[in-house]
Amino acid sequence: MYRITEAFWSRLAGLMPGELKQNELIWLASPHQHLSLLTRRRATMIVNRVRLFAFLFAVLTPLWSVIDLAVFPFPLWLNLALMRLLASAAFASLLLYYRPNGNLFDAYRAMALLFAIPTAFYVASYTLLGYYQLSGISAAIGAGYAFLPFVLLAGLAIFPLTLLENLVLASPILIAQGIAGSLRWISLDWPSFAGAFWLLVLITGVSTLAGMSQLAFMIALVGQAIRDPMTGVFSRSSGEEVLELQFTIASRSNAKLSLAFIDLDHFKAINDRFGHEAGDKALIGMTAIVSKNLRRGDMLARWGGEEFLLIMPNTDLIQAEAALLRLRSIGFGLRPDNAPLTASIGIAERSADQATEWKNLIELADQRMYLAKQGGRDRVLSRHAQV
């Protein structure tokens, strides 16, 4: 079974554009392991595209009533027009109410509403049209209503979604198609219905691959944007974004949040004496060691040059001190002359230091890092401890 799954993902990876790592392929299946920065960017994109769709549907949905008026009996036209106005109002509300805020569950709700509105309209209109014996051009226009599910499922292709998300969103539309068919059980043309349903399934498959392809591009691009190209840890801009997000979460839930400012000691001497290539090698080795020994949930960002920021959610001062002392005992690698590479470290914690903004945490940790340097380097300094 494992080999079959591995072969499937390998084949799928060949179809997906972008430079995905092996451990990132699972991100195409489910959103549960996505990085918070990727989640926020994806949520923002989804809501923006939902609003674009809502705008188009809000404008175009009532306009079709002009065609209906020309071909349908007045009672049928009136009922359809009322349903179109209600659907248009629902789309307009969706456009006005939702704004991108980086929250994935808000994005899910926006998508669910976007697809629920036309799905409900489809079931209602399909049922209503079944009560009328239409012929000629009226029958042709009436048959056009049956194509709405095809439009909806094809529309999934514009969203960067995982396999699981695509299946969850497509299932209600496919179920609605089945319900609409059952409501006209007696007069239903079963061969035609089965062919249409199979076509819907095929469109779902194509849309799913398109959405996953978009997601693969997004993962690759976000990965390049948020990572420091040399060390592979978070860049400064993405570190700021992560810290701002974690600070907001911690403030709302009154949780602990610690921050460590790490500055490698006498690093300029490495560049001056051995060259920048040796300095780069030392930085790469240091980040590899630290990344390997980070606790689950901790995030390392390169702040600039030989300075790094370690973000530790749900961590108080004592836990942060213990984690940094453990890293210090492991070591930060070797200098080109095989002497140990050391660091001066300052720690700050949101509640203990009564920080009101995430920038305050950085300033406090930075100040304590400089005090650690002034105290002799190769040490950890927090609000109440120096080791």
What does this structure look like?
With 387 residues, the chain is an alpha+beta fold. It has two domains: 2-226, no CATH class; 236-381, Alpha-Beta Plaits (2-Layer Sandwich). Helix content is 64%, strand content 8%. The chain has 14 helices and five strands. A five-stranded mixed beta sheet has the order 2-3-1-4-5, sandwiched between helices. β2 (299-304) and β3 (307-313) form a beta hairpin. α2 (36-63) runs parallel beside α5, α8 runs antiparallel to α9 (190-226) and α11 (267-274) crosses α12 (276-292). The longest helix has 37 residues, at 190-226. The radius of gyration is 29 Å and the shape is elongated. The mean pLDDT is 87.
Classify the secondary structure makeup into a structural class: alpha+beta
| Percent of residues in β-strands | 5-15%
Helix content: 55-70%
Principal-axis shape equals elongated
N-end to C-end Cα span: 52 Å
Poorly predicted runs are none
**How many E strands?**
5
Largest sheet, if any? Answer: 5 strands, mixed
SSE order: HHHHHHHHHHEHHEEHEHE
Strand order of the largest sheet: 2-3-1-4-5
| Integer-rounded radius of gyration | 29 Å
What's the topology here?
Blueprint: H1 2-15, H2 36-63, H3 65-71, H4 74-97, H5 104-129, H6 136-144, H7 148-155, H8 163-182, H9 190-226, H10 236-253, E1 257-264, H11 267-274, H12 276-292, E2 299-304, E3 307-313, H13 317-330, E4 343-349, H14 358-374, E5 379-381
Which key phrases capture this entry?
387 residues; alpha+beta; Alpha-Beta Plaits
Briefly say what this structure is.
The chain has 387 residues and is of the alpha+beta class.
